[in-house]
Amino acid sequence: MKQIRFIHTADLHLDSPFIGLEQRLPPELFARIRESTFRSFHRIIDEAIKREVDFVLISGDLFDGEDRSIKAQARLQTEMNRLKQHSISAYILHGNHDHLNGQWVSLELPSNVHVFSSQVEAIRHQTKAGAIVHLYGFSYDKRHVWERKINEYQKQDGADFHIGLLHGYEENGKSSHQPYAPFSVNDLLEKQFDYWALGHIHQTKILHKDPYILYPGNIQGRHRKEIGAKGCYLVELDQTGTRLEFIETADIQWKKEVLKLSEEESFHSFFMRLKQMMEDNRQTNQGVMLEIQLENVSNREIRDKITSGELLEALQDGEDLNESFVWVHRFIIDPQHPLKFKENHPFYREFEKQTASLTKEDWEEALSSLYFHYKTSRFLTDLTEEEKEEMLEEAKRLIQEGLAEEGAMSGENF
């Protein structure tokens, strides 16, 4: 019975700059984070070699930017040479982040690497055991590919297995990612392939079984919204079906925990529970960036120590930034009196309208007193879109908390 075994990965984002983190973290920790995408990819190649796979599939966005840094290309070259030493092929397509029309100085990849062109094509692979595989895919020729490239995939006879690679957006999916190279699950099923190796969405997501159609997610979380395990899939195909194994490879995991305080909780009890939570989240050979959501914070002393930043500093101060660190990077305090707006309330509609309509000019005006102050401006860097979104979320939360407390005292119901 013919069988193939391969690794499916995507969205490596090698050499991601992690914009906005450098100013918030100790240099040693930021250096570890900057290296994390490379470490995760190295572990994926370790697994490919250890599991003796036939080939590795990389479904787009190997690099974080279209300029493809020399460092990132050199690391990719090194890892591909490791595969070559073990007679393992790699099949690569480029996505919206690392499209073919970027500007870069290119380093050649070894002969075991096959990069899909900008036209949908089929590449033939023969395993050591004699199984014939047809692999179908294309690389983005520009950043914005709006066309339904799926219409160009055509199954070709003469193979034991047919695998589609596609960096694109599932039309019925709920994702903040751009709808590039859109497709539906039915579009893919109509091709009658044995497996679809997707990329683009940074979350692990299985869209269909038999045949499997799935996103492996990105290989390394890059900020607090990319939480949970990150890695790749080991896939085995034969005439009886498909077997999957998710392999976690991320060097650093972003996590979120919830801690509910009791009404009479002392600061000592609260602090010790936080320390225990850190230990409970400690991973072997993996760092953890931990966000803690706090509920029922009625103790004014505790609240003051949180808002002043003193508690966060104390938890960070004793942490050894070794292989298995836990770094608490953020507290979120739930309102004492949760405010639930009525969607038809005029205030709610106006509140949502105003926050949704903020423009670049609004941000510049709001922050001008800081960014143009002669004492503070030299210490500030431009805000990323993620930082702006985070600030807006925090501002909305503070407004809602203030309104909730006012409403609790006045009896007003929003």
TrEMBL record:
This is Calcineurin-like phosphoesterase domain-containing protein. Gene3D superfamilies: 3.60.21.10. The keyword Hydrolase applies. It comes from the Bacteria. It holds the Pfam family Metallophos. It comes from Bacillus smithii 7_3_47FAA. Keywords: Hydrolase. The keyword Electron transport does not apply. Residues 4-203 form the Calcineurin-like phosphoesterase domain. InterPro entries: Calcineurin-like_PHP, DNA_Repair-Maintenance_Comp, Metallo-depent_PP-like, Mre11_N, Pesterase_YhaO. GO terms for molecular function: hydrolase activity.
